[in-house]
Structures are given as structure tokens and as C-alpha cells.
């Protein structure tokens, strides 16, 4: 059998299972839409039961969590009892992978092999999907999404929009343009390439391409619905306002980056479409989604517990500033995250939302976005580097500093410098920067900013 036949077979296998999976999503979505109308009491009752189920399962099947959950009785545990448990960092999760995962069919070595060998997205024999991401922190992680966890995450990502579609069914063809990484190992395309209304068509447009190509692809797709990174939508909206893009989306969904006021404003001016902002992570899936009727985002409290805590992991009062946000994902049985440090700070919005939902609200997630690098008239988005560096299994962390004709890259790990350098040069050429000078230096650790402990991942030339 030739290589291409092998690849075609694996892609066809994936598509068939994916179709089955999306039917599972469709079946679950009605339940999820219904939950949006739950009372506070219903949310709390459901959440407590889900938490007890998670803790009980994790204690039996995950040696890592069994150790941490000693002294807690899952049968009677409440959300408040989580405060007695230690926090879980990204480093904890990635360094204790085999002790955390709850299925004997998977370990880190096997997950890495799947990532290295798959030619397209794929499912394990157990129905899991393996994803990898540099995430906003830039530290590479490997993640497993089991069959039911994926269903939960997709429902959380889309139930708010699905309810609006049900309330106001569109006449004619609806078409969703999905602007995402477009390829493995990122979870974004499987998560967002989902029709939210009967008969909706979807088209995936990879955002790694030069912006003019993305613009042309969006124009050709004539989408009625858009989902994309916040910065990409902002750029599209500004192009539309300048008359360079003629589309009329009725709904816009943003994700993966802070939604800046300037982008929200640009979307409003270009299309006057409702905007659903999503805050998620590859670890937890989806933490919160905006309803497009009130400010901020509603926490998916039926599937995620969020704790706002101080530097020691002690919960703070709703009106007190928090240093970290810890998340416990109630739907992920195969790789449980319990009191996981998301690395974001959130502020609670105390007032009831105009939409009437009883789900708690957080303000728009702040933070700064990675800077684009400008070389004369050429703009290279940080994602061009991130796609190469953030998904290389031999790079655990990196920092990119712009130079006049390219960049200096510090990499922690054991990368094939020649290979990575060539891949970065190729990625920059796609963005219009020919023959970039890329210097890669392998280091033991990166210098973090004093105080916050955060790392400036992309340092533009001043
Ligand atoms: Zn609302």
C-alpha cells in the first residue's frame, strides 16, 4: 500500500468517527441548552453531584489524585471542601502524566507517539483525542480528551449560540467560517468546526496563512457565522469597514485571546452582530462563554468549578482581588484536573445579567496579547512562531526576541536546532518575510519577570 493510501484511510477513519461524535453532540445539545435556564439551586445540586462523581473516580483510578485526595470523603464533599486540596500546576500535570491519566491504555509515551505519527486528527481505540498546545503560558502540554469530555466541551462552547439560533431560526443557508489552526495537534478545529443549527455548513480557514489569503478565503466562504481568535476577527472587521471584505455575519464567536475593546468596537461598527466571547483552555475545555446580551462571560458552572484564590491557594471573597484562578473540570474523567492553576485572573460581576441567566458571570478576561512583529511593511503575527515552537515535542518552553531581520529564540529542551530553524524560516516566508535570520539558543531556563513570575514570550524590536 502506498503512503497516500494509508493516509487517506486514516483520514476517512477519523471522519467517520467524527461524524458519530458530532451526532453525540447534537443529542446532548438540547440538554445543555435547557440547562441555561436552570435556577441557582439546580446548578448547585448538579454541580455538587458532578464534583462527588469526579473526586470519587479520580481517587480510585488516578494515583496522583488518590494521594492528594486523602482525607477527603468524595461522598460528602462540597465545592467549599476543594480549598483543603493542593493546587495543581501545569508543571505538575505534565510531569506526572502517567500517574494522573485514569486509563491503562494510555501513557505519556504513547500519547507522544500518537502526536508524532498521526497524519491528521485521530482517535485512539478508546475514543480519545490527543492534543498538544503551547497555550498562553508557552509551556508545551499534552492533553487527552475522552469521548464524553469532548461532547461536554463542544456543548459548552456552542450551547449559548445554539439557543439563539433556536429562538430566531435563520432563513436560507447558514454557513459557519471557522478560523483556527486548522490542523493537528491543536484542539481548536475539532472544538469549533461544529454546526450550531440544522443544515448549517462549515468551512475551516487556517489562520496560519498570510492575512490577505485569510481575507480572500473568508470573502469566498460568504459566512453567516464566524468563529475565530479575537485578534483575527478584529482584523477582519476593520478590513470590512474599509470596504475590503463584503460579508454579513449574523453572529460572531471569539476565542483563544483576550477580546480587546478595540476589536469589539470594530466588530460592532462592521457588522452590528452579537458577539459571544469564549474563555477556554486545552486542559479544562471551556470555562465561560458570553451571552451577547450582558457584559462579561457566564461561567459554565455545571461542568467547571472555578475558585478565585490568593497566592497560597486560599479562596478570596467575591469582591476581593484574586491572584490566581483554579479550575476543576467536572467532565474530564480520563485526565482529571482538580484545582488546576489556569494562570488567568478573573473578576466576578456581582449584578444579575440582563439575559436572566443564574450562571455566575466574570468580566472579560484581561491580560495582554502577544505582540506582532513588524518588519517594515510586513507584519508577522506571534502565532507564526507559536505554531512551530509551541508544538515541537522537544521544546518545553521558548522565548522569541525580534531582531532587525528575524528573531533570536531561546528554547528549553532538546530541539533539533537545524530543523526548527528551517521550520521557523519557512513559516516567516509564508508571512512575506523572506530569508529571515533565525538564531536558536538552547538554554536550561528562561528569565521571568520579577513580581508576576510571568514570562514575556514575544519581545518586539523597539
Ligand atoms: Zn447573560
Report on the architecture of this protein.
InterPro entries: ANL_N_sf, CapK_Type1_Caps_Biosynth. Keywords: Ligase. GO terms for molecular function: ligase activity. This is Phenylacetate--CoA ligase family protein. The model has no long low-confidence stretch (mean pLDDT 91). The chain has helices at residues 3-35, 40-61, 63-68, 90-95, 97-100, 108-117, 147-167, 188-192, 211-221, 230-241, 261-271, 382-389, 417-430, and strands at residues 129-133, 141-145, 175-180, 201-206, 225-229, 251-255, 275-281, 285-289, 297-299, 304-309, 324-329, 340-341, 348-349, 361-362, 373-375, 378-380, 395-403, 406-413, 437-443, 458-459. 35% of the residues lie in helices and 21% in strands. It has a domain at 373-459: 2-Layer Sandwich (GMP Synthetase, Chain A, domain 3), CATH 3.30.300. The chain has 13 helices and 20 strands. It has 462 residues and is α/β, with parallel strands linked by helices. The strands form five sheets. Strands 4-3-5-6-7-8-9-14-13 form a nine-stranded mixed beta sheet, sandwiched between helices. The protein has a four-stranded mixed beta sheet with strand order 19-18-17-20, with helices on one face. The longest helix has 33 residues, at 3-35. Helix 1 (3-35) packs across helix 7, helix 10 packs across helix 11 and helix 12 runs antiparallel to helix 13. Bound molecules: zinc ion.
What descriptors fit this protein?
462 residues; alpha/beta; GMP Synthetase, Chain A, domain 3; nine-stranded mixed beta sheet; four-stranded mixed beta sheet; 13 helices; 35% helix; globular; binds zinc ion; ligase; Phenylacetate--CoA ligase family protein; CapK_Type1_Caps_Biosynth; ligase activity
